[in-house]
TrEMBL record:
Coiled-coil region list: none
EC identifiers of the protein: 3.-.-.-
Cleaved signal peptide residues: none
Superkingdom of origin: Bacteria
GO molecular function terms attached to this record: hydrolase activity
Name of protein: Polysaccharide deacetylase family protein
Record keywords: Hydrolase
CDD domains, sorted: CE4_SmPgdA_like (cd10944)
Organism in which the protein naturally occurs: Paenibacillus ehimensis
InterPro entries: Glyco_hydro/deAcase_b/a-brl, NODB_dom, Polysacc_deacetylase_ArnD
Length: 258
């Protein structure tokens, strides 16, 4: 091979070597940038939904203690406003065959129906440790009535102090049951004849981008439901319904298993 050809090959090999070295450094730098201290790749979506909670201003309207003689009217108001809500229904009411049609209607119209125990009795649920058996029975009733297979429940009186006992929460987690409390308590159940106070309570407590409003199937609540809906619309909130595929923990015990 001539001296000129040897020189040409030398230059080409040298350039290729520099290119390979540069690419190796860039690759190493890129990998270093996307690896967490523990060695796992960073979640590029973590900032958008770090704990599964929806982003932006979102409100969940939730209703306890149904089904009732007013369930159909609640569904009417929600339908008129194109809003899906989350219902937590009680086993003793679910057994009433004359009310089961409204439970099916709720599911058919896109609402979520979860459990709220069979008896709603504090002593039985928490002191006598019947929380899981009662919730299983309630969820089974919902499944029989609607064909759905829900896993979310709301503890009567809230998870605190009833679920302070970790052993009870262990049973709930093992049963695959999820628990939701609330961020806003309307206290509507005790405001018969004072519906405007329900609205005031909700307005005063609305402070965060994500709110879960506790209400009950009561006539005084039904009376002001349109006003409550208008309030959140004016505040720029979107209305959401619970979705099991996008569960996020919302219990006073801050137990992430639930």
């Amino acid at each position: 091979m001539g001296s000129k050809k040897r020189a040409r090959w030398g230059v080409m090999l040298g350039a290729a070597g520099l290119l390979f070295f540069g690419l190796a450094k860039v690759t190493a730098f890129s990998e270093k940038e996307v690896v967490k201290p523990g060695g796992a790749p960073a979640d590029t979506n973590a900032a958008a939904s770090a704990d599964g909670k929806p982003q932006g201003k979102v409100v969940y309207l939730t209703f306890d203690d149904g089904p009732s003689e007013w369930t159909g009217q609640f569904l009417d108001v929600l339908k008129q406003n194109n809003i899906k809500a989350t219902f937590f229904m009680q086993g003793s009411n679910l057994k009433r065959t004359e009310l089961q049609g409204q439970v099916r209607r709720a599911v058919r119209e896109g609402h979520y129906v979860g459990g709220h125990s069979m008896t709603h009795q504090y002593k039985k649920l928490y002191e006598e440790k019947q929380f899981v058996p009662e919730m299983k029975q309630t969820l089974s009733l919902i499944r029989q009535i609607t064909g759905e297979n829900p896993h979310l429940v709301r503890p009567p009186y809230g998870s605190s102090p009833g679920l302070n006992d970790k052993r009870l929460r262990d049973q709930i987690a093992q049963a695959g049951i999820k628990v939701w409390d609330w961020t806003i308590d309307s206290n509507d159940w005790k405001l018969k004849g004072h519906p405007n106070e329900i609205v005031d309570n909700i307005k005063k407590q609305t402070k965060a981008d994500l709110e879960v409003v506790l209400m009950h199937e009561k006539p005084q609540t039904l009376q002001v439901l349109p006003e409550i809906i208008d309030f959140y619309k004016q505040k720029g909130y979107k209305f959401a319904v619970y979705d099991e595929t996008k569960h996020f923990h919302l219990n006073f015990m801050k137990d992430h298993r639930l």
